[in-house]
Write a structure and sequence with these properties.
Two copies of one chain form a homodimer.
Chain A lengths: L1 H25 L3 E7 L5 H12 L5 E7 L4 H7 L4 E6 L8 H8 L9 E5 L16 E7 L6 H4 L1 H6 L2 E5 L11 H11 L5 E3 L8 H9 L7
Amino acid sequence: MQVQVIENVLKLNDEVARMNRADLQNAGVYAIDLLGGPGCGKTTLVEKTCAALADSVDIAVIVGDLATQRDADRIARFCRQVVQVNTGKGCHLEAHQVRQALSRINLRDVDLLIIENVGNLVCPVGFDLGQNAKVGMFSTTEGADKPAKYPYLVLAAEILLLNKIDLLPHVPFDTPQFYADIRHLNPTVPVLECSAHTGTLEPWTRWLRQRLPAHVA
Amino acid sequence: MQVQVIENVLKLNDEVARMNRADLQNAGVYAIDLLGGPGCGKTTLVEKTCAALADSVDIAVIVGDLATQRDADRIARFCRQVVQVNTGKGCHLEAHQVRQALSRINLRDVDLLIIENVGNLVCPVGFDLGQNAKVGMFSTTEGADKPAKYPYLVLAAEILLLNKIDLLPHVPFDTPQFYADIRHLNPTVPVLECSAHTGTLEPWTRWLRQRLPAHVA
């Protein structure tokens, strides 16, 4: 019975995700779901991405956390439309939470929607939110073994980021192992290195711009 | 119905956890459940703790990961009894998985059991495994806002560790905010700073020894 209930939850989630996807597509919005462990740098990446694209791209952000409004407050300095979703004890965002958040965003004024998921490398992978792409984020300080230990994210991601490359001189990180493990699981996924903290974002912002309509990016 | 199923899962888990706890107590084993995000340094802490206590304490380790045998292989260099549990898509260990692992450990030869949970700051908090203490682990590279954003771990932990203090000079980390947020949630939980990587473990290993029978520690 437990499996049946989980299947029903996922089926319902997929239905709501389809509605989100249709609404986003109709409004011409490209949407990413940003996944990574706690403290890998998701919020800083969102801040710096908003700042880097602000000249030409209208961005909205939905940010998930168990508790606090802090991430939304941080991001609001760089983005006009930010909605915080508090999940309580929930370890991931679900499509209905995104749907509720979308009702508070004027999608007609948006080119790019960034959904920052709860810090967790496991369960967010399994829940479709209606996004165009799941973006998986690792960081050098977490160690090079995370792709192998969290394989479902590597399999599901449209693109992977390796953040905090500025800290490479200070941490043990086996770069060849990191890439070999990813390639073993997913031979084609692009992997981009960045440092959100220092603002080294170039390949990432270029990747994003390429996904936006020509008149925007 | 969904809530009912979740309640049943937790109730069954608690029953099995009670059986684990009775077995551990009967065998004179002190057990900790180590919780922290991916890459906060749990496995390195376990390795170095085993090495530091090896002179006088018999240790067994149960280590949870979605996939791979890597952590068990690492820890086996410092500890004779190590069992890896692969959770597949499961984001936390449950009591029945620990029970199965315990059947492969000779508890009569063990003083201290370390259970390294799946890297996740959310769901492992809610599942009793039969441990004496849940140990919550943060790291400086994750940023100082993690206690406030993952409050249930702070509320449930017997003790909190702040790892990677050797990296403080290289990362933005608001130490007063970190402690203020913890104290706001849990005024009494001990918080110990350490660096598993450099082997700076002293207050932590002392805390552990104090929990072991006098003839051992």
